[in-house]
Amino acid sequence: MNEGVEWGMHTCVNLSWMPGEALPAKKLAAFYELPTAYLNKQLQALTRAGILSSTSGPKGGFQLARPTDRITLLDIVVAIDGPDEAFRCTEILKAGPGADPREDYRTTCLISQAMRQAELVYRRELAARTIADIVADVERQFPRSPESTRAWFANLKS
Amino acid sequence: MNEGVEWGMHTCVNLSWMPGEALPAKKLAAFYELPTAYLNKQLQALTRAGILSSTSGPKGGFQLARPTDRITLLDIVVAIDGPDEAFRCTEILKAGPGADPREDYRTTCLISQAMRQAELVYRRELAARTIADIVADVERQFPRSPESTRAWFANLKS
């Protein structure tokens, strides 16, 4: 999985504490000492997926495009890592003896079905966790996080 | 995920119908028109994991090393694709403001925890399905599979 998934999730949590404020990729990258250009690529992907919105100009940058309880971990994984499942059925049964050339073995092959079922529970789990859940957990365990994040960005020279 | 996972699972199902018979990589590859050398690499990985056993010599080849109800889909995924989880926490919190250099953020980071939890349900699902389950499903839906597989290998010129 692309490491941008980790970056994207942490950045969304940070942005949740900066409502109404657009932050440029450079500042968001500085927070974790990440490479700006590469983080920017992930932020663009999140923007295309409707998770972030982006504005240009001297005061421009990225902010959350929708409430954190409508951004799931799966949304971020799919936006950055793409929609493909880990197991890709290449229908090797089609090359096997007695295969039916018209059959869609991605649907009927029992190995393909079992692998898809596992992937489904994984995605269901990721779809059930939102950035709002993560933010709530963080704030419960580390109550100073919102304030210290805001202070850090405020003190950052642009 | 390595496509060898698909090949390995189908090959284990085929081998379940050939008890006591060692089949060389060349024959196993011919069944699905797979490249022999690359399938052989996967079969070696399954052998190292104790899923297959291999014998050399003119009558040598691969066979299942243990009963199909003791070979899970997770065993095959880990043997061929390695033990790493899809999401790799690189502890970006460590580079963030106020980080504790002694902390293991792979354990304490709430994003890392949520991603690991999803991975856990995925692996639990794969660990709950065995090759015996798949074989039983195949035999229920395609009762002629064991016989036709045995006939195909018997007719194959060595």
Please describe the topology of this protein.
Two copies of one chain form a homodimer.
Chain A: H1 4-16, H2 25-31, H3 36-48, E1 52-55, E2 61-64, H4 73-81, H5 105-108, H6 110-127, H7 131-141, H8 145-155
InterPro entries (chains A, B): TR_Rrf2-type_CS, Tscrpt_reg_Rrf2, WH-like_DNA-bd_sf, WH_DNA-bd_sf
Protein name (chains A, B): Transcriptional regulator, BadM/Rrf2 family
GO molecular function (chains A, B): DNA-binding transcription factor activity
Provide a quick synopsis of the model.
Chains A, B: InterPro entries: TR_Rrf2-type_CS, Tscrpt_reg_Rrf2, WH-like_DNA-bd_sf, WH_DNA-bd_sf. Chains A, B: It comes from Kribbella flavida (strain DSM 17836 / JCM 10339 / NBRC 14399). The structure is a homodimer of 158-residue chains. Chain A is mainly α and 158 residues long.
